[in-house]
């Protein structure tokens, strides 16, 4: 259980960085759709290299999310800072996220089980005092015996069954 709790409560690892080809494809899509300031060939290469360097840490899924959001909401090609903000909003659904969610479900179920176990009536705590049993009518004693709440000892005394 300690290993499951470690997974449930530890921070998520960084996602797998995006594939450079995927990032380049997404940048080309954005460049073809969103207007930006004209530049010469050298500044265009520097532009792409700067975006690659700053956005390369994000996953393929985050880059795709950023591209979709930028195309849908930006009037001009977004700055690197705006791209980082968009990519950071991307929901994660990789293996690490799924493992963490599963671990949290297991820990939650275990805690619920322990709480229910701790809240159960204790077997060694009688619900009826012996005086209450001794004051019962014969019909009530027979009912208690038939239900298994009461038992008759070898010497004929009627007592509460403690292991119910």
Describe this structure in words.
- The model has no long low-confidence stretch (mean pLDDT 85).
- 61% of the residues lie in helices and 4% in strands.
- It has a two-stranded antiparallel sheet.
- It contains 8 helices and 2 strands, in the order H-H-H-H-H-H-H-H-E-E.
- Helix 2 packs parallel to helix 4 (60-73) and helix 4 (60-73) packs across helix 5 (80-88).
- With 164 residues, the chain is mainly alpha-helical.
- The longest helix has 25 residues, at 95-119.
- It is rod-shaped and about 105 Å long.
- Among the domains are: 17-88, Helicase, Ruva Protein, domain 3, CATH 1.10.8; 130-160, no CATH class.
- A hairpin with a 5-residue loop joins strand 1 (150-152) and strand 2.
């Amino acid at each position: 259980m300690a290993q499951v709790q470690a997974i449930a409560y530890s921070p998520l690892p960084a996602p797998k960085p995006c594939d450079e080809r995927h990032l380049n494809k997404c940048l080309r899509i954005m460049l073809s759709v969103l207007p930006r300031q004209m530049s010469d060939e050298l500044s265009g290469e520097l532009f792409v290299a700067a975006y690659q360097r700053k956005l390369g840490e994000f996953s393929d899924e985050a880059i795709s999310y950023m591209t979709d959001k930028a195309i849908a909401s930006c009037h001009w090609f977004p700055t690197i800072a705006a791209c980082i903000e968009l990519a950071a909003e991307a929901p994660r659904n990789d293996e690490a996220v799924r493992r963490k969610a599963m671990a949290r479900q297991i820990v939650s179920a275990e805690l619920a089980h322990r709480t229910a176990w701790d809240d159960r009536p204790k077997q060694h705590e009688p619900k009826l005092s012996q005086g209450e049993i001794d004051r019962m009518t014969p019909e009530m004693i027979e009912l208690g015996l038939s239900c298994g709440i009461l038992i008759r000892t070898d010497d004929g005394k009627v007592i509460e069954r403690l292991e119910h």
